[in-house]
Amino acid sequence: MDAGGEEAVEGRFVAAAAATQRWETTWDLGANTGEFSRIAARHSDYVLAMDSDHLAVDRLFNALEAEDEADNILPLVINLASPSPGLGWRGIERRPLLERRTPDLVLALALVHHLVISANLPVADLLDWLHSLGAHLVLEFVTKSDPMPQKLLLNKIDNYDDYETEAFEEAFENRFEVLRKESLCDGRRRLFFARPR
Questions:
Q1: I need a surface site. Which of 57, 99, 123, 131 has the fewest CB within 10 A?
Q2: Which is nearest to 112 in space by CA: 179, 192, 56?
């Protein structure tokens, strides 16, 4: 299946998960230019589309402004590995992200390998954080055999034993009940729709 076909499968997977109920708040973590944010917005009152790439967030913001649609999507530049703390007077004028509005649905597609390999976050810590949100989760796990993690590992020592497929899935399923699962790219990418245990 070509890349366009894989993206269509991802879109259908996200659409099916998002359509299972009406969500008050959805977080799209690593939203890029908002493809999945737009899908989730059809079934959500409010979507926070977060990415650390300023240009991608700017493109999403400008596209939403030009279209005059999806007014329930808020694009935000946020580095999840180092989110903004409380700011302003006494650190409470602008609260930290987790003290604002918690999500009912979280999208984390093509994100985990960036946080684990690029930001050196342990898988257990990342999954604990996602679990702590108390939300349903659509997550994509990109195995080390995929070109993107291989590129991220190019100039690094591979000390990421917790990022091996079996270890990751065991850690994930200890924290989340998998409602639906699908493999892409000959098993190099796996999609999960799950809820916290």
A1: 99
A2: 192
* 47 within 8 A of 40, measured Cβ to Cβ: yes
List for the chain the helix, strand, coil content (%; round to 5).
45, 25, 30
Containing structural domain, residue 36:
3-78+105-120+127-156+167-196
What one-letter code names the amino acid at 168?
Answer: F
- In angstroms, the CA 18 to CA 56 distance is 23
Contact 8, 35 (CB under 8 A): no
Pairing between β-strand 105-108 and β-strand 23-29 as defined by DSSP bridges: parallel
35 DSSP 8-state letter:
H
Instruction: Decide: helix, strand or coil at residue 3.
Output: helix
User: pTM value?
Assistant: 0.91
Rounded CA-CA distance 156/12 in Å is 35
Whether 87 is covered by a domain: the verdict is no
